[in-house]
């Protein structure tokens, strides 16, 4: 085998010389030797292995795949010819592992890699630990396992790689030349595990390993530079995660050492300089030291100087330099830096071919710089070029690329910018789409996922502000919440995400009024403040938002601690903001607002003085043309007007008018806030008119109010507020000869058209009632005005339209809007959203309905001018009207949401006269509506006044409270028996007779055509304080004349409105009967409700009810059987014409749908009853507490259980004006059902009003006419 030895000798020479011709000679020599050697020759396996090595080396030089295949083949044959005990077998196996891993890498196949690992493992297993080759074999196995992990991602391979690397290192003695390299490799695998699992301990281990490698590497060693570069990179990575100064300092020291070791003509010098620039920039972004940015610019500039244009890395260096210039621009504001950033980025893009992997990043950087210049110079071309650059980057980036999300995230930002600039909704849609793609492309554990979610949430919130569609706000909250959840504690962006989440919750609170949203808002903003260190540039913003939330909660709950906290954080926000900061005026304005709240609470003039001073500073710091400057003037005018009311100093009202003028003049027509400014101006002219009485101020006030009311794009609430004050002025003007009746009627006409918009069904019920507290009395004023003008039909229409608004809406919406949602859902959703957007956009610049800033309201982009906002608002108003017109164009919806005309309303009086009694401070009148009369009949009521009616209401309320008639009890509790007390009660009833009932009955009885018998059926629609008084019991009870009592002349019924009677009469009569022809009844009784007083009388009451129905007609749920679910089940499965409730009741004035009957396991709310069909419901008998009491703040709204049951669909309801005796309920129930049964048997119909009238007569005769508290409370509502 001399030829084999000769071939081995040649291979050794090749290793030292890398002489390719000599390698060819060695291969030929080894082949000749193999040709001559038999298979059983002991040297043949070694010769085959050497040939495989030679072929493998040639492959490394020439990359001919055949060489690699033959190397594998030769080495495998060597292994096959070797005995297991052959000492050379581990070497052959190790070599085979090398060639197989090479082939796997070049052919991208996994099979060779699996075989390579198997071979390497056998080599390791066959080699004892004391063999000097074992560390090499372990290193080769480590390499193969690492390659398979990179290929397949199986973490077990990574774990095995680390274990094998540790074994190799343990077997490598100190001083061994390979120990530094093996330490470095071990660090590489720890770094890989950190990348995949995120355990910072692995990064620490990676840094420790490479640091030890650096320490063992002698100066000048060929691997010294490589290991230093690895150490610098690892330190930089740990700095990115932990932000510890020591790491970035060490990284910079290390990279500088590496640069000093690298001569200028070394090919790696530019790359190392560029890396140094990256590290300096990284330190700058954390510590904001401008010197680091300068060093970054210097290092990257040197890298560029050493790099020819043809080098593939030059575009990367240019792009980085552009980023450094851009950062310096953002720090110093020098436009030339931004220009240089764009210039260098353009060069990067021009030099980079589309095939260069870094080109998309270069395009992205260029797009970012152009966007910055757009924000600075407002040149739309820069924004268009930015979008174009990012689109180009996306087109060059393959699907699934790990950095593709960056391009979509930035594209979303650009579209959002263009939306703010141009207001085109399609750009906002594109922003949301791009942001969503960025989010969807990232796994939850990606460090940038939260940032992409946060940006997408901001786009959704912008779409909500534009369209008012609640779905967008809900999605913004959900997406922002995910961003918060994915952000670890201590992350730099955590406070920012929390702050915006708090703002979204605050916006939803403004929309829906749900207290939990306000609490969530405060909690999120509070955490944002807590997590932000003093000195952070965003801390003042977070403080300001927290202060706004605390102020909102103070206004809601009145807790002084919230107010003090709001003042504290708003003052800190102002103190932390320098005067030149663009947010300073806004924060001053917020501070003024919270100080004004404290003045309102305590009346300390110093707080109001501070609010005025701070508001003036906000104005002084705000340039003319700024979109928020009018708001600051308006708020200042409010504070000055308040001080005038406090001090009477004319100078204050003069300055208030001047500031209000400035606000109005600076706000263009059509802007959402124009109505606010004009209304405020009118208020100040009114204040001065009240003080000085000048006709000029009177005229200016009316002019301002009328202009405010005419702002179609303004908030309906503000427009109606302006109209209300203008009507008050017109009444004064009529008395003084300043105004005409026609002007007053026109103002009320406008008010009536605005009232449904203010109490719009898109808002919460409680919010609608809050607004109606302020405006309900306008309906009575409107009726008075048109009655005085002789337009009686319109008076009836307006009283019907303006009373019982919310119940009417519930019934109205229960049919047409439910139908619209059912058959035209998209149109229904658009209509509701447009209406809400129209109202919400009134706060877009921070004006609130009380003329104060609402600091938690979303604020417009600073790039959006007042005219832009006006255009958007006008578009919303137009959109709403178009949608409403579209609904009314559908067959069957022609009168959708339109008030009824008199000719329709007149049909409500088919069962007898309907009397509307209008009570207003200027005059009181009755209008009698008859089905047989073409016009309403007017009855002036000169003896009735609003003040007298209110005194009587208060007297009755106090008398009942003093007589304990506010709680249903087992024992009868009448009124006290002393004569003065009884005299007061009789005064109430006497007043009702003389001032109201008697003059009306005289007219009714004079109309022979409406009198069919001695007791006509009269339905009362009372207004104002009169709606709380028992008109049906009016009479002169000290008179012996029976005709001096209402119950002897008429049968009385009450109704909230004529429309409610029309709805009842339009329904089919209940015809659900048993086989015997008896109508069915559901009886619910609670003789002993847990947690409430006992009602033992309900046992007898139910017995009395049952005797009038056949057994199969009764479903009785008593005590524990009467649960909420069981009652609802019966209503759902068995529609009952009659329902009798003998239990406690609970009235909710804020949201009457939550008014409830107290059952065994909880509350049966009206909203639950409304969810079931009441098509066949004739009568609901409410034998419960105060079911028809009402709320004195809302006399026009019939906020009680009886009206609520009418709204659920019952045609008639028997209720009580106050609580009843447990002994009286059985008497009334027995008599009512007895007469209903007789009516059914004799005439085939039922008359519930007549039945109750007779039942009360029986009770009155039993207890005595003077026992007023026991027989009067029973009342009939409906038809």
Automatic annotation (TrEMBL):
This is TPR-like protein. The lineage of its organism: Eukaryota, Fungi, Dikarya, Basidiomycota, Agaricomycotina.
């Amino acid at each position: 085998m001399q030829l084999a030895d000769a071939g081995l000798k040649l291979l050794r020479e090749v290793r030292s010389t890398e002489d390719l011709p000599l390698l060819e000679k060695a291969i030929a020599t080894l082949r000749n030797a193999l040709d001559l050697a038999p298979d059983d020759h002991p040297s043949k396996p070694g010769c085959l292995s050497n040939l495989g090595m030679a072929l493998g080396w040639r492959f490394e030089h020439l990359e001919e795949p055949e060489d690699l295949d033959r190397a594998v083949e030769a080495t495998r044959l060597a292994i096959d010819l070797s005995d297991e005990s052959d000492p050379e077998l581990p070497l052959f196996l190790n070599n085979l592992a090398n060639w197989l891993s090479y082939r796997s890498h070049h052919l991208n196949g996994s099979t060779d890699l699996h075989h390579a690992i198997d071979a390497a493992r056998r080599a390791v297993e066959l080699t004892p630990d004391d063999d000097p080759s074992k560390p090499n074999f372990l290193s080769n196995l480590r390499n193969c396992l690492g390659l398979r992990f990179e290929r397949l991602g199986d973490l077990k391979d990574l774990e095995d790689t680390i274990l094998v690397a540790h074994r190799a290192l343990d077997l490598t003695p100190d001083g061994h030349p390979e120990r530094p390299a093996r330490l470095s490799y071990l660090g590489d695998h720890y770094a890989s595990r950190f990348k995949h699992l995120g355990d910072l301990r692995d990064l620490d281990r990676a840094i420790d390993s490479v640091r030890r490698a650096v320490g063992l590497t002698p100066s000048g060693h060929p691997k010294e530079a490589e290991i230093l570069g690895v150490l610098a990179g690892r330190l930089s990575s740990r700095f990115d995660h932990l932000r510890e100064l020591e790491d970035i300092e060490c990284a910079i020291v290390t990279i500088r050492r590496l640069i000093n070791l690298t001569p200028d003509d070394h090919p790696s010098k530019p790359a190392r300089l560029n890396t140094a620039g990256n590290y300096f920039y990284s330190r700058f972004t954390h510590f904001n030291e401008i010197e680091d940015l300068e060093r970054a610019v210097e290092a990257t500039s040197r890298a560029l100087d050493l790099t020819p244009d043809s080098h593939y890395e030059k575009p990367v260096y240019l792009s980085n330099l552009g980023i450094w210039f851009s950062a310096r621009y953002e720090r110093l504001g020098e436009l030339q830096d931004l220009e240089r950033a764009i210039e260098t980025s353009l060069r990067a893009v021009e030099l980079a071919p589309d095939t260069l992997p870094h080109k998309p990043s270069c395009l992205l950087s260029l797009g970012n710089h152009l966007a910055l210049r757009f924000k600075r110079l407002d040149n739309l071309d820069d924004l268009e070029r930015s979008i174009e650059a990012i689109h180009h980057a996306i087109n060059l980036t393959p699907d699934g690329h790990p950095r593709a999300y960056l391009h979509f995230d930035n594209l979303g930002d650009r579209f959002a910018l263009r939306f703010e600039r141009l207001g085109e909704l399609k750009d906002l849609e594109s922003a949301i789409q791009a942001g969503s793609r960025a989010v969807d492309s990232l796994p939850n554990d990606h460090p940038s996922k939260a940032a992409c979610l946060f940006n997408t949430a901001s786009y959704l919130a912008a779409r909500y502000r534009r369209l008012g569609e609640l779905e967008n706000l809900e999605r913004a909250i959900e997406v922002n919440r995910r961003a918060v959840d994915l952000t670890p504690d201590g992350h730099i962006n955590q406070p920012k995400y929390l702050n915006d989440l708090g703002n979204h919750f605050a916006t939803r609170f403004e929309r829906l009024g749900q207290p939990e949203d306000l609490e969530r808002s405060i909690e999120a903003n509070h955490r944002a403040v807590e997590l932000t260190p003093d000195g952070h540039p965003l801390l003042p913003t977070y403080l300001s938002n927290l202060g706004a939330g605390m102020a909102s909660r103070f206004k809601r709950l009145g807790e002084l601690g919230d107010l003090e906290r709001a003042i504290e954080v708003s003052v800190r926000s102002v103190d932390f903001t320098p005067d030149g900061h663009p947010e300073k005026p806004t924060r001053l304005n917020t501070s003024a607002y919270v100080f004004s709240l404290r003045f309102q609470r305590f009346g300390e003039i110093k707080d109001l003085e501070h609010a005025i001073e701070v508001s003036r500073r906000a104005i002084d710091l705000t340039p003319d043309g700024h979109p928020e400057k009018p708001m600051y003037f308006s708020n200042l005018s409010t504070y000055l007007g308040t001080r005038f009311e406090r001090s009477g100093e004319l100078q204050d009202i003069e300055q208030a008018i001047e500031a209000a003028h400035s606000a109005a003049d600076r706000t263009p027509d059509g802007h959402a806030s124009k109505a606010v400014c004009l209304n405020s101006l009118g208020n100040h002219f009114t204040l001065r008119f009240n003080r000085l009485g000048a006709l000029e101020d009177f005229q200016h006030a009316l002019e301002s109010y009328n202009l405010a009311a005419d702002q179609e794009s303004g908030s309906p609430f503000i427009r109606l507020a302006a109209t209300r004050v203008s009507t008050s002025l017109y009444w004064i003007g009529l008395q003084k000869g300043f105004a005409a009746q026609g002007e007053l009627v026109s103002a009320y006409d406008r008010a009536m058209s605005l009232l449904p918009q203010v109490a719009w069904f898109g808002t919460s019920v409680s919010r609608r009632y809050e607004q109606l507290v302020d405006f309900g009395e306008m309906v009575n004023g409107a009726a008075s005005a048109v009655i005085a003008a002789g337009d009686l039909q319109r008076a009836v229409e307006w009283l019907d339209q303006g009373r019982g608004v919310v119940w009417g809406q519930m019934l109205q919406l229960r049919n047409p809007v439910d139908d619209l949602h059912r058959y035209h859902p998209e149109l229904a959703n658009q209509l509701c959203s447009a209406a809400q957007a129209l109202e919400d956009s009134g706060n877009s610049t921070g004006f609130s309905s009380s003329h104060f800033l609402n600091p938690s309201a979303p604020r417009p982009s600073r790039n959006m001018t007042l005219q832009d906002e006006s255009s958007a608002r006008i578009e919303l108003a137009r959109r709403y009207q178009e949608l409403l017109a579209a609904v009314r164009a559908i067959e069957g919806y022609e009168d959708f949401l339109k008030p009824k005309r008199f000719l329709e309303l007149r049909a409500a009086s088919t069962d007898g006269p309907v009397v509307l009694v209008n009570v207003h401070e200027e005059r009181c009148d009755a209008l009698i509506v008859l089905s047989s009369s073409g016009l309403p009949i007017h009855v002036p009521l000169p003896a009735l006044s609003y003040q007298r009616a209110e005194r009587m209401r208060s007297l009755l309320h106090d008398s009942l409270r003093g007589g304990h008639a506010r709680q249903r009890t087992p024992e009868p509790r009448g009124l006290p028996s002393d004569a003065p007390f009884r005299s007061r009660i009789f005064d109430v009833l006497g007043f009702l007779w003389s001032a109201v009932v008697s003059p009306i009955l005289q007219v009714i009885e004079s109309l022979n055509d409406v009198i069919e018998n001695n007791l006509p059926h009269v339905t009362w629609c009372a207004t104002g304080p009169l709606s709380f008084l028992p008109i049906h019991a009016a009479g002169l009870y000290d008179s012996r004349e029976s005709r001096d009592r209402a119950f002897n002349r008429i049968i009385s019924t009450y109704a909230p409105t004529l429309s409610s009677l029309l709805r009842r009469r339009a329904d089919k009569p209940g015809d659900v009967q048993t086989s015997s022809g008896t109508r069915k009844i559901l009886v619910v009784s609670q003789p002993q409700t847990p947690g409430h007083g006992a009602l033992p009388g309900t046992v007898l009451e139910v017995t009395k009810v049952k005797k009038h129905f056949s057994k199969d007609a009764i479903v009785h749920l008593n005590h524990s059987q009467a649960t909420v679910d069981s009652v609802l089940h019966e209503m759902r499965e068995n529609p009952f014409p009659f329902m009798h409730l003998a239990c406690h009741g609970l009235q909710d004035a804020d949201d009457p749908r939550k008014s409830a009957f107290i059952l065994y396991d909880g509350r049966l709310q009206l909203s639950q009853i409304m969810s079931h069909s009441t098509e066949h419901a004739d009568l609901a008998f409410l034998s419960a507490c105060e079911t028809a009491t009402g709320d004195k703040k809302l006399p026009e709204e019939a906020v009680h259980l009886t009206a609520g049951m009418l709204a659920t669909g019952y045609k008639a309801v028997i209720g009580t004006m106050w609580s009843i005796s447990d002994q009286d309920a059985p008497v009334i129930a027995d008599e009512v059902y007895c007469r209903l049964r007789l009516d059914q048997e004799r005439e085939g119909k039922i008359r519930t009003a007549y039945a109750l009238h007779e039942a009360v007569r029986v009770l009155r005769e039993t207890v005595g006419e003077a026992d007023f508290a026991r027989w009067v409370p029973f009342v009939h509502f409906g038809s």
